[in-house]
Amino acid sequence: MQSAPITKYRPFPPVQLPGRQWPSRIITRAPIWCSVDLRDGNQALAQPMSVEEKLEYFDLLVKIGFKEIEVGFPSASQIEFDFCRRLIDEKRIPDDVAIQILCQCREELITRSIEALRGAKNTIFHLYNSTSPAQRKYVFNASRADIVKIATQGTIWVKQHSRPLVAAGTRMRFEYSPESFTSTELDFALEICEAVTDLWQPTVTDKIILNLPATVEYTTPNVHADQIEWMSTHLTRRDRTLISLHTHNDRGTGVAATELSLLAGADRVEGTLFGNGERTGNVDIVTVAMNLYTQGVHPGLDFTDINGIREVYERCTRLEVPVRSPYAGELVFTAFSGSHQDAINKSWAVQKPDAPWDVLYIPLDPADIGRSYKAIIRINSQSGKGGVAYLLEHEFGFSLPKLMHKEIGRIINDVADAKGTELTSADVHDAFRQEYLERTAPVALQHFKTTERDSAVKCDATLTIEGVAHKLTGDGNGPIDAFVHSLGATSLPQFEVLSYSEHSLGVGSEARAVSYIQIKTARGHTLFGAGIDTNIELASIKAIVSAINRMLAKR
Ligand code: KIV
Ligand code: ZN
């Protein structure tokens, strides 16, 4: 990098728009969406999609709910032409979906594009030419007037050559893009758009689409919004114009630029699923749409099965959706931090099904897009008690008493520390079983039976302590009390039972009971034990033995 002062790069000049309106607006309705996956997205793939893959992808876009789909640049390649023909000839396009094709302002390309559209019901002819000073200077060596002439001549040819198509019943709308709009002087962008509009003669019911691309993203999103508001307020036939956005993501702010520019008055958004496209990509329509949804505005696109959509996308494009990609990334509903897990648990526990979504750290109910709650908690040495308890409950059915959360959290953190990696849910389950349920040394329960006498309970128990059998009897006000009294005849350290809880595990004839017992040692330490049995009484006695063994292990 150049050391300061930086002379290699220049700041983008701001737009003079003193009365700008967009900063105080909010988005209240969804824009018209146009997918450019099959054109802008496809042309950016190392291995472009085959016709079969494009057909599958087209069906996916239709299923999601796109009503405008740019299907290619049929005059530029035979595959794109054939794809367009197959869509039409095989009647794969629903009547309410318009296919859009891109074309340069050259007569032979325009006639070929119209040929590609023959027989289609609903189409958009998308004409473009580059307009920025750098493009005029380095690529075209042309004046402003020359560039206007290219666009207007192109418009005349489209109008002229599309007459037979329209006469044969095709609805054809017209879109014009001053490519590199955001790097073009605003007065010139306006001049060329006005010249094209003059020729096209749009009406209120058949509007022209003026697509204003950020072909390369050079500015902060507020400048983009200013550019769009400036155009929106200077166009003479605004009521006969749809302003379309087409942001690329070079600065990583394509979504923000799109959102602010919707505030600035744009009507339509071109973009791709998951932001595929040249260099850093086109704007990610999934994110823009779902951002709207989480603000209470239905986007009119259906991402209920985001995993299925991602699967088709990854297979057809041979790209991967990054794990942190909003909404669709593998890790976006996963909390690693213990305090986050705790907050998620607490807020989720009180979330009512029909109440406004108020779960902390997760701005969207994962179920809305077909994602699972199970993936939310992952355990590592930083995870908190809440996360471990959540996982044991939701994956294995152990509803641990609240007071036990801290103890199990510490145990699992130690296991994760020792392992040095994240724990799977099976690891957590194993650690829980070994620590509480499978402790049979030094004390093991061989036999336990109670008989009731008046309001008291008598127990007969056989224990082995370090391999030596002990036959014990005891009385108490219940089985636990009787068992604890019976232990007085042994050399085991004394303790007091502080709390007891139990619940069933599983249902029907398979159901077992799990008990949790908290004890306090003579030294004042508290700890838990847990036991499982089909017999609820035995489950609680096993839980006491588990607590005793844990107490002895700590001494
Ligand atoms: O990024 C761009 O400017 C384009 C145009 C052809 C619309 O893709
Ligand atoms: Zn583009």
How would you summarize the topology of this molecule?
Blueprint: E1 32-35, H1 37-43, H2 51-64, E2 68-72, H3 78-89, E3 98-104, H4 107-117, E4 122-130, H5 133-140, H6 144-167, E5 171-179, H7 186-200, E6 208-214, H8 221-234, E7 241-247, H9 254-263, E8 268-271, H10 285-293, H11 306-317, H12 338-349, H13 385-396, H14 405-419, H15 425-437, E9 443-453, E10 456-465, E11 468-476, H16 479-486, E12 495-505, E13 512-521, E14 526-533, H17 536-554
Parallel strand pairs: 1-2, 1-8, 2-3, 3-4, 4-5, 5-6, 6-7, 7-8
Antiparallel strand pairs: 9-10, 10-11, 12-13, 13-14
Helix pairs in contact: 2-11, 4-6, 6-7, 8-9, 12-13, 13-14, 14-15, 16-17
Task: Walk me through what this model shows.
The strands form 3 sheets. The chain has an 8-stranded parallel β-barrel with strand order 1-2-3-4-5-6-7-8, surrounded by 8 helices. Strands 9-10-11 form a 3-stranded antiparallel beta sheet. A 3-stranded antiparallel beta sheet has the order 12-13-14. The chain is 39% helix and 20% strand. The two termini are 61 Å apart. The longest helix has 24 residues, at 144-167. By secondary structure, it is of the alpha/beta class. The protein folds into 3 domains: 24-317, TIM Barrel; 338-437, no CATH class; 443-554, Double Stranded RNA Binding Domain (2-Layer Sandwich). The structure holds 3-methyl-2-oxobutanoic acid and zinc ion. 3-methyl-2-oxobutanoic acid is lined by residues 40, 102, 128, 177, 179, 211, 213, 215, 246, 248.
